[in-house]
Write a structure and sequence with these properties.
The structure is a homodimer of 156-residue chains.
Chain A (H helix, E strand, L loop, with lengths): L3 H14 L5 H10 L6 H11 L2 E4 L5 E4 L15 H4 L3 E7 L2 E6 L4 H11 L4 E6 L3 E6 L5 H11 L5
Antiparallel strand pairs in A: 1-2, 3-4, 4-6, 5-6
The first copy, chain A, binds a DNA duplex (30 and 30 nucleotides) through helix 3.
DNA sequence: TTCATAAATGTATAATTATTTAGATTTCGG
DNA sequence: CCGAAATCTAAATAATTATACATTTATGAA
């Protein structure tokens, strides 16, 4: 596997469809896909992807991707919110973000944000055409932007 | 600290209101609260609580509680709000606190907060299932937590 | 109470994961 | 091209976290 971007993509796909309990395990799965790297690199990759290690109820551990990385809809579909151009703008002030929408759309879009961006966002409060987004601590503006782009992009 | 349940509660509260990057760090915070345990026990506690370790965008790591064990209530309460499990979580970001509730409950609970916590809280803004709580200057997170515990878990 | 059993914990250590360091590779502006 | 700067990586190591094992502590039935 040639480059980094490619590798990150492969890692993402593996984690989406498997229970992976350790980096060594993931290393092996990667090597089966012709991705030969060391644990050090993998650790950095996981950090980059913000992959969390979480305990499961069965006593094992699992690496999980941040939820915004998961597909919202199946392949080839489009996001109605975006298709209708319901999101008009996204701006920041201090630690807060404000999303402007077409009238009436705020609640619906806020619901999507709440559900897809739990890792970045503490909560949202929606009016009729405005959403106040409260990011978690340590989450940067770029992270919010990225999340919004992924969550509301038309392709995937 | 006497028993395990108690300790788990303390751990939960610490993780809810602080960025904790390692178990050692958490151990120290626990010892400040008269909770003297070893790293081994802590590791087991975190596994029990299903606390995940996740990378932040600032390059550090953070232990995060699973969203479903965020309830702040204690057992055996008589407050209707809590009795119905209407309050789902309480988290902080910067100077703000965010309370998540069951759908439709936010306004009612916000009213309670406004009226019972005037001393700690400047005001609240409620959506449908989210309340933004703006603490007064100088009010600490622990104060808010305590206020919420008292307001929503005492017999009336 | 007393014994049996289960639960909880600490110690020591294994296992795992993060990072430092140094070197390789790529990129980009002359 | 050339070299500087940035990016990427492996190897070694440091740091952190999980667990095997031993011991203690709680629980409960007779």
């Amino acid at each position: 596997m040639k480059n980094k971007r490619n590798r990150l993509q492969v890692i993402t796909e593996i984690l989406r469809s498997n229970v992976v309990s350790s980096q060594d395990e993931l290393l092996k799965m990667l090597s089966e896909k012709q991705c030969l790297i060391t644990q050090a690199t993998l650790s950095r990759d996981l950090k980059l992807l913000k992959v969390a290690k979480t305990p499961l109820s069965n006593g094992a551990y699992k690496y999980i991707l941040p939820s915004y990385n998961k597909p919202i809809l199946s392949e080839g579909t489009f996001n109605p919110m975006v298709a209708h151009g319901a999101i008009l703008s996204l701006e920041f002030s201090g630690q807060l973000a404000v999303v402007k929408t077409k009238p009436g759309y705020a609640s619906a879009i806020a619901w999507d944000i709440d559900n897809k961006a739990n890792q970045q966002v503490l909560g949202t409060i929606a009016g009729d055409d405005t959403i106040l987004v409260i990011p978690r601590e340590g989450v940067r503006r770029e992270d919010i932007l990225e999340m919004m782009n992924i969550t509301f992009s038309e392709k995937e």
